[in-house]
Known about the structure:
Low-confidence stretches of chain B: 6-17
CATH topology of the largest domain in chain A: Rna Polymerase Sigma Factor, Chain: A
Mean pLDDT of chain B: 76
Radius of gyration of chain B: 33 Å
CATH architecture of the largest domain in chain A: Orthogonal Bundle
Structural class of chain A: mainly alpha
Order of helices and strands of chain A: HHHHHHHHH
Shape of chain B: elongated
Number of helices of chain B: 4
Order of helices and strands of chain B: HHHH
Radius of gyration of chain A: 18 Å
Helix content of chain A: over 70%
Number of strands of chain A: 0
Oligomer: heterodimer
CATH class of the largest domain in chain A: Mainly Alpha
Largest interface: A-B, 51 and 42 residues
Distance between the termini of chain A: 44 Å
Amino acid sequence: MVLETSSPEDAALVERAKADSAAFGELYERYVGRIYSYVYHRTGNASDAEDLTERVFLQALTHLSGYTDRGLPFSVWLYRIAHNAVANWYRDRHRHTALPMDDARVADEEEGAAALETVEDVALLRKAMALLPLDRQQLLLLRFSEELSHAEIAKIMGRTEGAVKALLHRTLRSLKHDMQGAGDAKA
Amino acid sequence: MRKLNHLRALRLPFQHRDGEEADYAALLDNFYDVVETVREAYPSMQPSPAFRDALHARLMAEAAWLKDHPVASPRAVAVKRSALAAAALLLAGLAVLAWRSARSQAAPARP
Lengths: 187, 111
């Protein structure tokens, strides 16, 4: 299994953070954006994303003394806490929230045929992704937005690396099929 | 062509990160439209500066509190529970032994 190891800076910072709150503050500043973005895309709204981001870092702070660096990057440890927090959030609410449909950022893109095509593609894909099972949405997010490796995703999702690769392939194939179907229908 | 070059640029970070490039490159080639669109669908979101600062302040306060009231690690809790369970078992064993010994003394001697 190929796994990105902890960066030396992270490892040293984590060790310092066990005794020094300022070092934990540095870790927080380093990862708060990534964790918030991940949680935001999983919950679909800023309010829940803020709530869960807060829980993730409070839990990380409380359990930091139990974290031992065995080559598992600190970021993966944080994502795993976030993964569990989001799973609990879904369990508590018994709901399946669609992906955020706020396309303001996409709509702000440059005008022109290429941009229009992209906006339409994104809208189609968002609809298709919103219908995917939650684990597949999470997989796409971790792979293509957070840019984690298969091995890192396997650790976060509690699956084997092979299972993650197979699921990714099936998911992409299904999305491609959906997009082609929508494209054919448009034509 | 522009789209393909854009995709190659996106692929670069993976090439030095892990040994999966061959598999991953094949996957990207097969699904490059989908992959690119998935990336578009997941723009990086950032928390508001006010939330970010407020959480930072709360974490620092929690860290100060934890320094004065350290939380036992899960391993320490497990060790404590095991020790308590072992002590309970030992006491139960001793109680059984004492009871049996008392019963054998109290029983009338057989002829």
